[in-house]
Amino acid sequence: MKMWELLLSCLLLSQAGAKPVDENKEVNDCNYTAELLKEKLDRPYLLSTDYNTNTIYFSYTVPSKTDEGVENFTSAYIYLNTKEYGTINNVQDGFAQSVDQKSGDVYIGGSDGIYKYDHNTKNAELLGAKDTDIWMIYFKEVLYYSVFPSQFLYTLVDGTSTRFSDLEDTKVDHMVIDNENDIFFTNETGLFSQKKGTKNAVFFANNISVRALTTDMNGKPYICLNNGVYSINKKEIKLDLVFETVDAFGLTFDSENNFVCSDDTSIYRIKADKHKCNDGPFLLQSVNLGTN
Ligand SMILES: *[C@@H]1O[C@H](CO)[C@@H](O)[C@H](O)[C@H]1NC(C)=O
Ligand SMILES: *[C@@H]1O[C@H](CO)[C@@H](O)[C@H](O)[C@H]1NC(C)=O
Ligand SMILES: *[C@@H]1O[C@H](CO)[C@@H](O)[C@H](O)[C@H]1NC(C)=O
Ligand SMILES: *[C@@H]1O[C@H](CO)[C@@H](O)[C@H](O)[C@H]1NC(C)=O
User: Fold this and answer.
1) What is the tens place of the pLDDT at every residue in 12-45?
2) Which residues, if any, are the signal sequence (predicted)?
3) Domain ranges within the chain, ordered by starting residue
């Protein structure tokens, strides 16, 4: 059982009394809309997009059917073109999602291993890391995953699991690889980058409450903290605020490269007016993702 206490161990005071989404707000000469995609979910987390089909995958918390007080997880999807929503029921405790953009293969990590999911047949089959509780997964050329509770990072190639040597000296909470083969990862200390194939970690930030680490369609890295979405500025080794949020839980992009962001109950697509905001990075402020 993965505990939210551990997940959110460095959670700062959560902000109460958030306002609902401002449907159409003008900030910095740039209009944006926050489109509600799905509500009434319990902490939608680990969002990932299949750009080929414009489908987002994520997981959320469900109460255990058998053990009172125990939390389980389920993987789910929203096919953005039609808003079709469904849960993926044949993965036990589906928690982590990632997509191979070249093949369109979808991988899901549950509490007893890693599954490969077929969007057409809606069937999932156990692929590897059998009997292992999976913490996170990430696909780029190969499948990376970390296990619970050690948080050590492995690769899974042809059914064989191997410790990933670049990051063998640290636990890994979130990780992503950008378009220049820079690995970004977070651990208890903070956010670091490391050129793939080296062991030279560059320190970016600490004292942050990390919810998601991802790239956009072009491979540009972003980090989602509880209080906002930031682009990772590699030149100046800092984080640039893109928009503020209240208690964000996840971040991904749709196949038009719009932000898709979740808070503790809902998933939104954040659309900026392309005509006014095409010089990016556009700065949106106080997108109050609606809470309760
Ligand atoms: C729910 O979580 C418990 C504790 O981790 C686990 O033993 C059980 O198999 C999970 N149930 C489902 C349906 O995934
Ligand atoms: C933003 O939208 C409002 C209402 O539709 C409009 O009046 C305003 O001109 C727009 N601003 C920009 C910068 O596009
Ligand atoms: C996090 O990673 C950095 C860089 O590899 C390392 O120096 C640090 O000790 C790690 N922190 C923990 C808590 O493992
Ligand atoms: C950590 O961040 C919080 C809120 O941003 C701030 O109040 C606090 O001083 C920071 N602590 C350290 C050790 O930097």
Assistant:
1) 323 333 333 344 554 455 666 788 999 999 999 9
2) 1-18
3) 3-11+24-272
Instruction: Quick: pLDDT tens for 154-213.
Output: 999 999 999 999 999 999 999 999 999 999 999 999 999 999 999 999 999 999 999 999
Q: Could you tell me the two tokens for 106?
A: 């979808």
Rounded to whole angstroms, what are the CA distances from 257 to 49, 150, 271?
Answer: 10, 34, 9
Scanning the chain, the segments in alpha helix (DSSP H) are 4-7
Ligand number nearest CA of 110 is: 1
* pTM flag (> 0.90): no
Pocket of ligand 3 (CB under 6 A): 170-171, 187-189, 192, 201
- Determine the Cα–Cα distance for residues 196 and 47; give it in Å rounded to an integer: 24
- Site to substitute for ligand 3 among 167, 183, 187, 208, most atoms within 8 A of C-beta: 187
C-alpha 213: how far from chain center: 6
CATH topology of domain 3-11+24-272: Neuraminidase (2.120.10)
- 118 sits in which H/E element: strand 113-118
Q: Ligand 4 site: residues with CB under 6 angstroms?
A: 12, 207
Q: Which atom of ligand 4 is nearest to the CA of 12?
A: 4
